[in-house]
Amino acid sequence: MSNAASPALRRISASTKERHYTGCRFNRHSTTAWAAITRSLALQPPVPMSLKNGVWFEVRVAAVNANGTRGFSHPSKPFRSPAGV
Would you say residue 73 lies in a domain? Predict the structure, then answer.
């Protein structure tokens, strides 16, 4: 019996989506619709490419392989982009 991962398990990618809100306090009911983040998974986790000062973000991730996906994770805790970006 081999310990090598099956070919389907070796080809796993991630689909990442973000939604955001501009304001002093996060308001989940006023965020944008979920949108795909188009960035490769190199050495760092994907982050929204349009970080702007004072914008709140949530992200969610789904693992995808040859068998499909089980759907997206729960949204992250809201986080605000740092000043000066």
Answer: yes
